[in-house]
Amino acid sequence: MDSHNTLDAIVIGAGSAGLSCAYKLDEGGSTFALISDTLGGRIDYDSTGKVNFGAYFVMSNYGNAAKLVSRRTRINPLSCRFHDGKGESFTTLSMHTLKRSPGFAAFGISMAQFMRHYSQFKKNCEVMSHREAMELDPFILRLYTEPASSFIARHHLGSVAEDYVSKFSYACTGADMDQITALDFCNVSQGLIVPIHRFEFDAEAHRKRLGDRFVEDSVVAHREENGLHIVTTASGREYVGKTVVFATPAVVTAQFLDVGDIRQSCQLYVEHVRGTIRKDLSAQDMNLFPFTSPIIFTAVQDDGTYLVYSREPEIDLAALFTEFELIQRREWEKAMYVTGRAYVEQQYGPTTFVAGDHNGLGLEPTAISGVYAANQILNAVGLHANRFLTSSANNEK
Ligand SMILES: Cc1cc2nc3c(=O)[nH]c(=O)nc-3n(C[C@H](O)[C@H](O)[C@H](O)COP(=O)(O)OP(=O)(O)OC[C@H]3O[C@@H](n4cnc5c(N)ncnc54)[C@H](O)[C@@H]3O)c2cc1C
Questions:
Q1: Which residues of 256-277 are buried (b: 16+ CB within 10 A; e: fewer)?
Q2: Which among 79, 348, 68, 92 has a CA at the least distance from the CA of 222?
Q3: Half-sphere exposure of 157 (CA within 13 A, CB side)
Q4: 276 — phi, psi (to 5°)?
Q5: CB atoms within 10 A of CB 343
């Protein structure tokens, strides 16, 4: 690619946000370079392409992220075992669950209400900023400003939350109910309502589709000159764009742009283990643990091996397996930006955009943030008349 060509956009980072942004720009006929040191970001397969150490599942209502991956094995919520962290456990289909029926009814009602609002909110977020979409719906805004624990109390979810939902939420966020927002809690809890699947991410197909517009390199500097963005990579190349999208993890984005405070990230450790799981943990797709346990969850893979997720670097695998061999291990120093109330805007000046999981986690919210940035760019460079974009929305930034 000729560094003297001025591109419509430079997209930095090829995770779910950057890829979704790139494909939307492509659809709109825009020229771009997608520069990233990895393809897939926190979708992270090992060299065999069979073990995913990053994002684990997609939900059936992931419309945008579904364009990046293909669904594989369905995860059966009826095949889960929930542990209290003190040696007691119960399965989804059990007397314990039956006794919680009134609590499950309350959970179902609150989630039905949430999903009605959230489905419209997601659509809005493709064409207006996350902040504008929240301000349009006080129900969603409230969820962003209150902790999950307060939502749980408000909806009388008590023991159902403690025994089941908070464990699933811990598996998705690595965090406790006081740390995460009610919006993240409700978002991930949809995984207990709608079908969820493990998925395949075909990196080669993405490379082929993007061609030389994908640049495997690390961005080391960004500056603005005469209204243009100049991005320098570790290999010393320069790219010039009319607009730029930082689709990088929050901590990286904050190095390039003054985005203010960012939410704190959790640490996760994923161990790939071959072994014989202990009897009280066997025959279940997933074993889910409470926040008091450093082990978050175990998940059996198609070949009978296991992934074990934890929030501490040293865990006792002998507590889970009678015999085992550790095949591989992956450390996520910054896994997900889930705690705190900081908020990152999606636009800084007329031509600088931010996408990613700064304000909400998961493949779908990040994909939507990428689509939004692309829609703004297509509008800004005059390639695409988006009827939802008003001049007031642009002027406000
Ligand atoms: C262990 C784990 C399990 C998860 N499970 C799920 C799940 O089951 N379902 C779900 O929906 N979500 C899950 N998530 C969350 C989800 O993976 C993230 O929210 C989402 O992938 C973030 O996408 P992103 O595009 O914002 O960032 P990323 O995927 O992190 O992409 C950022 C990209 O920027 C690149 N980059 C960084 N710095 C530079 C630089 N200087 N120059 C160029 N490129 C750079 C990176 O290489 C990367 O490609 C999980 C996350 C983890 C870590």
A1: bbebeebbebbebbbbbbebeb
A2: 348
A3: 26
A4: -105, 115
A5: 17
Q: What is the pLDDT of residues 25-75, one digit of tens each?
A: 999 999 999 999 999 999 998 878 889 999 999 999 999 999 999 999 999
Task: Write the CA distances from 327 to 219, 272, 305, 308, integer angstroms.
Answer: 32, 5, 9, 11
> Which of 356, 296, 360 is CA-nearest to residue 56?
296
Residue nearest to ligand 1 atom 31, measured at CA: 15
In angstroms, the Cα distances linking 312 to 11, 177, 357 are 34, 18, 22
Under 8 Å between Cβ of 364 and 190:
no
> Does residue 36's CB lie within 6 angstroms of at least one atom of ligand 1?
yes
> Atom 10 of ligand 1 has which residue's CA nearest to it?
362
Token representation of residue 251: 């901590």
Determine the Cα–Cα distance for residues 152 and 175; give it in Å rounded to an integer.
15
SS3 state of residue 313:
coil
Structure tokens at 233: 């990579």
Taken in order of first residue, the domains within the chain and their CATH numbers are 6-48+201-263+340-396 (3.50.50.60), 70-199+264-339 (3.90.660)
Locate 145 and state its tokens: 């400003």
Burial 92-131 (b: 16+ CB within 10 A, else e): beeebbeebeebbebbeebbeebbeebeebbebbbbbbbb
Q: Are 357 and 337 in contact (CB under 8 A)?
A: yes
Compute the distance between CA of residue 230 and CA of residue 223 in angstroms, rounded to an integer. Answer: 5
* Structure token pair of residue 94: 């059990």
Give the pairing type, strands 80-83 and 286-288: parallel
Q: Tell me the C-alpha distance between 57 and 181, whole Å.
A: 21
Percent of the chain scoring above 70 in pLDDT:
95
Tokens of 174: 């690595």
Among 46, 189, 218, 248, say which to mutate for ligand 1: greatest number of ligand atoms within 8 Å of CB: 248
Q: Measuring from atom 13 of ligand 1, which residue has the nearest CA?
A: 55
Residue in the block written with tokens 């966020």: 173
Look at residues 209, 210, 229, 231 and name the one whose alpha carbon lies nearest to residue 220: 231
Predicted TM-score (pTM) above 0.90: yes
Q: Measure 74 CA to ligand 1 centroid, in angstroms.
A: 22
